Amino acid sequence: MESNRCSQVGSCCSSSGHPHRAALILARGGSKGIPLKNIKNLAGVPLIGWVLRAALDSGVADSVWVSTDHDEIERVAKVWGAKVHRRSPEVSKDSSSSLETIQEFIRLRPEVDIVCHIQATSPCLHPHHIREALQMITEQGCDYVFSVVRRHQFRWEEVNEKGSKNPTPLNIDVAHRPRRQDWCGELYENGSFYFYTRKALENGLEQLDKIAYYEMLPEHSVDIDVDIDWPVAEQRVLRFGYFGQEEKAAIRLFLCNVSGCLTNCQIYTSVSGEDLVAINARDVAGIQMLQREDIEVILISSVNEPLSRGLLEKVAQQARCGLRIGEQQKGLEVERLMREKNLRWDEVAFMGSEAEDVDVLSQVGLNGVPCDAPVADLIAAKYICQRPGGHGAIREFAEYILTLEKKSTSQVHQNRIDRAHF
Question: Coiled-coil segments, which residues (predicted)?
Fold first, then answer.
């Protein structure tokens, strides 16, 4: 367990029965640092999707909400399984505080007893963080719990540049500067979450009986505020983020649409009247990467496939993989294929692009879609490629699959990495 401490301010509040616990993510549409950053893709997932996945998989929230004033954020939130609270204009201003927004939420939700306020900008949050911090309210009687991270940073008093006063050290004796291993450091809020009882919120956080902090490891303490943080956060989340159940999946079969995934849906006609399509060499390389890891790759077509059988066979031959030409609905075709190969849904990865792919995308262990796929607006894909279909999307998704395979077989458990080796 990542550690927690309670600071006793008064008597511990008591509760009876099962309090209603609501996870709440505030996602205003008017972000100044990064426009609409809450739904900007981070490592193939909308930023808000990382914390929604953790909240939903924690198993302790009776409801998971997104508070927003923006239509597109509302759509993404619902696709990812959250309920949506449309905040009023009064708490949607640049000057509006989080406390005011949460207080409006509980006024309209009288059933809520505990609010788990989770920051959308903390994509390395895991379900166990939420479970363990919530226990500090439900079992230890805390009113207010917030997340912190330990830092080894020496602080100095700020002075006026035009003045003659020397800066004063605030937490260090300069004559006896400690080594890192000899100093336990200090705790700072990392902004991942703030949990409150209803009573604490109604009192404006001014009458708190029992306060606690929950310490998270540095590798999980990622907070995105400006654009320069984005590439750093992307690398961090690929290593330390929570990927859901698919993190432990062992993929044995990769299925992929031809039109919209391997090709860009364009059909060219030669002078002689022959139909032609183009495929990307990067995608072929991605297919070969999977095959080298003993993952079978099969292209699958639907009954509505615009390409002829002959052209599909040429594409499969060029891509050096198998081909399944659908004679029935795609879901039924995939189920038949799985029976033939004795596979479970969680052993299959699928890249789709059309609305007819929703059923299969929803059931496989791992799914992905090109960024220009119509189906991207209909389902919370585990991975949304930065590249469009026919332009390297398969290569990108193949790299993601292999990243997850590497994570699942790693000897170092990502949740318990020693600080000394970080």
Answer: none
